[in-house]
Each structure stands twice: as structure tokens, then as C-alpha cells.
Amino acid sequence: LGTATTEDHLSRLFRLVSRVVFCFDGDRAGRQAASRALETALPQMIDGREARFLFLSDGDDPDSLVRREGSEAFQDRVTCAMPLSEFLFEQAAQGRDLNTVEGRERFATQVLEALNKVPEGMLKSLLLESLAKRSGLAQSQLQALLDRRTADAAAKALPQWGPVEEPAAEMVPEQALPRSAARGRRQGARLQTLSTVSRIVQLLLHEPRLVASLPESLDWLPENSEEAPLCRALIELLRAGRYRSPQVVLAHFQGSHEGQVLAELAQRELLIPKGAREAELSGLVEHLVEKQRKRSPQEEYDALLALERSGQKLDKAQRQRLASLMMELIQRI
């Protein structure tokens, strides 16, 4: 990988492999490029992923090295490449005297800034433990400092909602608007008011542990909801394990339309107190269950038919239900 590597590139790569090795020249320009790659890689480092850094001698590139030493020798170099953790600490220590209080302070500060970008998980905990040993600071102190940085970053990321007042005389019926303007008005309205399914997605994104409180079956998800596929995918992902924080979930979906929707939901302030979120989630699911129960056979049939006609493939249970509803409606005629 080279200097033009982006988060989107890495996200795509990590969907295919769990280990990525960056290869750079060993000169100053190569080191600077490696530093930029490190910054790009940090948000992608969920548990189970690995990144390493390989630096070549001046005048060498992978092709010339393989020609001179052979592919096996180059593979050995790749295997012994510097782990991301070591490169991170090496970069932070560069030009600083770690025998002084001031040097250790700057070292610890730079590493904490990097850790603030790493998703929650085992890797982040181990990096924090290693930082404590290298800096001489207590791990609890470093954790408190890191939590404060995370809270500050989250507060800055929250959108600033303010009342928007428009004179009544300027209000125009949607029918009189051009299509693009009407669509923009509808999109703006959706940003202000979340659907029931979107509220469930937002709760699960902020509190992934709440997935354990959901019913085993997902029959309560409305088939005709635009957000239902994303909600279903998120629930299945959380049930698979390892995804314990919003950052990790966002990293998984990064670069996709679903990732954009989740990022917008993550930026919206969740006003529900932490202790009331599980009850809120249960209430939303119960509302959808009751709504499904009250739906007439015709409405259910129309919803499934519309889903099929939209191009979405129905699963076996949905196809059987569609056939059953069709027979029920024919018998009523």
C-alpha cells in the first residue's frame, strides 16, 4: 500500500483480509508517509485486525528486492514487519527524552490522541496498558484522561440544533415546488423526526449491549419500512459478537450507504437517560408488534407484495406467508 491509501481503501481491504502490511521507503519521506498511513489505519483497528509497517532500504522497491533476494526472503521481511503498536510508540517517542517528566508527558499525550481514534476493544486496552508501562503513569489515570478526550470529541461532534423560524408568507405548498426542492423538504423533515425503526437503530448504535433484550424472532420488523433492512443487518451483526461500541459498528459499515445513515444517527443526540434506554427499546418493539397484530390481511399482503416488487428477495417464511394470505383473500371473495 502507498501514500494515497484512504480509510475507504482500508475498510474495503479489511473486509477481505484481517492483516494489512504497509510498505514504504526507509527515508524521511517514506517515514512521513507511514505516519499518515498510521493515522488512517487507527479508526479501522477493531479486534481481529492487524496492521504492520515495512520499511525498505534506500533505492529499493518491492520489485527490485524480490528480484535480488527472491520471493521467500521478501516474505520473511513482510512477516517480520513492525506491528502498528510498535510504530505508534516509536513515532510518539521520536525527538523526546523519555527520561524527563516533560518528555514522558508529550509522549503520553501524543499516544492518547492516537488511542482516541482506536475503536473500543482488546487492542485499545492493551495499548493503554503498554502506554502505562512506558510512561510510568497509572493505567487508571490514563483511562480517565482518555475518557475525557472521548467525551469532549463526542460533544464537539453533536449537531447544534436551533429553532428555525420562517415567515408564514414564505411557506409554499409542496405541490408548487420543483421536484428537487420538494424532495429536499421531505428529506429535511426526516432529519427532524425519526421513524420507530430508526429510533431502534439509534438506540442499538449507542448501546450495542441492548441487542440481548430483543426478541429472538425479528417478525416485528415491518416489511415495508425503508429502515428495516439496516435494522435487521445491525441486529445480526451485534448478535454475532465483538461489536461492543458505536465506533466499531461504524467502522464495519464505513464506505457504504448504511454507514452514512448510521453516521448521521450517531451524530444525533440521544436524549434518553442511560438507565431508561432498555425500557424505551422494549416499548418501541412492543409498539411495532401491536401494529403488526392490528394490520389486516389485505394490508399485510400489499406490504409483502410491494416488498417483492421493489426487488427485495423474500425469505422462505415471507413467501409462505404471502401464499397463505393470497389464499385467505381469495376465499373471502
Give an overview of the whole structure.
The chain is mainly alpha-helical and 333 residues long. The protein folds into four domains: 1-94, Dna Topoisomerase Vi A Subunit, Chain: A, domain 2; 96-157, no CATH class; 190-281, Orthogonal Bundle (DNAb Helicase, Chain A); 295-333. Helices cover 61% and strands 5% of the residues. The protein has a three-stranded mixed sheet with strand order 1-2-3. The longest helix is centred in the middle third of the chain and has 19 residues, at 139-157. It is elongated. It starts with 6 loop residues before the first helix and ends with a helix.
Mean pLDDT: 80
Strand order in the largest sheet: 1-2-3
**Main sheet: strands, sense, barrel:** 3 strands, mixed
Number of H/I helices: 16
Helix content: 55-70%
